[in-house]
Amino acid sequence: MLAYSYVERGKFALLEKPVPSLQDSRDALVRVTLSSICTSDLHIKHGSVPRAVPGITVGHEMVGVVEQVGADVVSVRPGDRVAVNVETFCGECFFCRQGYVNNCMDSMGGWALGCRIDGGQAEYVRVPYADCGLTRIPEGVSDEQALFVGDLLATGFWAARISEIKEEDTVLIIGAGPTGLCTLQCVRALHPRKIIVCEQSEERLRFVHEHYPDVLLTTPENCASFVLSHSRYGGADEVLELGGTEDSFRLSWACARPHAIVTIVALYARPQVLPLPDMYGKNLIFKTGGVDGCDCAELLTLISQGKIDTTPLITHRFPLSRIEEAYRLFENREDGVLKVAISMG
After folding, report:
1. Phi–psi pair at 99, nearest 5 degrees
2. What is the pLDDT of residues 223-273, one digit of tens each?
3. Which residues of 31-43 are buried (b: 16+ CB within 10 A; e: fewer)?
4. Is the dihedral of CA 107, 108, 109, 115 positive or negative?
5. Half-sphere CA count of 209, side-chain side, radius 13 A
6. Do 118 and 27 meet the contact criterion of CB atoms below 8 Å apart?
7. Which CATH architecture has domain 156-288?
């Protein structure tokens, strides 16, 4: 089969590899029908993910059809269309029982697919702990509609959930990249009083205005004053930070009202500093960490009900044979790209 693989730092290549085989009674083999490229894949390419194993097939955003299951798999069977979770988790350890599946204590727990074991930018993928890592796609939901359920949408849903958003609240979302746009959809599903999106890119601001005209828009240089003028208690009730820069981190706490919740979704290239003397008296609650992607079934239900639709994020489509072209486009942010869908046909 064809598989896009991490050869060495700075180099990916489309290689011929054997079809994976089951290694455990809880594994499933999935024939990938649609995959996507994530910024985390670029981090692997450029050596920013030390745990990534050279030689592995990359890719952790995918949907497909179950081809084979191990003897102990009960939730899916061959022929089922499934969304694949970005995280591998056992469902049985302390953290899994609390719903903190990103911290699964199993040796394969956390982000394994496309990082430590072969992922889904390939024709087939082996999924460990298939009962936890695979979710059946409902009838009427297309592959493109389900493509981001296991990663981007799971991240947005997790961020919205832990932010404790209420209907009377004003919510600030910093960053309108693909993850920010998925987070926006999940926040909108909670119906807060106001949603403000802060974004530097005029192109992305236009996208938000076109698809979500009820959302208020601002830019980083105007964000603090804009939020102040559109909130009741001196700032946003909840801030979700997806920008990933020093400036966006500063805005996240500066634009929050006293006793607000600040949810850090972004990954940063270097440590950030909390200037506690400047923050004194705001009594903020910070929530941080990786996505706990255990709500995929609920997300697919919301999609089937028409309450969430991320297909507008797919701006470009390529076959697997042209995946290098897709990577160049995505990495260089050319032609208004947001997300790329990679078909295996």
Report:
1. 90, 5
2. 999 999 999 999 999 999 999 999 999 999 999 999 999 999 998 888 999
3. bbbbbbbbebbbe
4. positive
5. 10
6. no
7. 3-Layer(aba) Sandwich (3.40)
Tokens at 25, concatenated: 């009674």
What mean pLDDT comes out for the span 165-194? 97
User: Could you tell me the two tokens for 78?
Assistant: 């061959």
For the beta carbon of residue 75, count every other beta carbon within 10 angstroms. Answer: 15
Q: Is domain 2-151+292-343 in CATH 3.90.180.10, yes or no?
A: yes
C-alpha to C-alpha distance for 135 and 124, rounded to whole angstroms: 17
Q: Which residues contact 277 (CB under 8 A, 6 or more apart)?
A: none
**pTM of the full structure:** 0.94
User: Which pLDDT belongs to residue 267?
Assistant: 84
Structural domain boundaries of the chain?
2-151+292-343, 156-288
CA neighbor of 32 nearest in space, from 7, 2, 71: 2
Write a three-state SS string for 40-99: HHHHHHCCCCCCCCCCCECCCCEEEEEEEECCCCCCCCCCCEEEECCEECCCCCHHHHCC
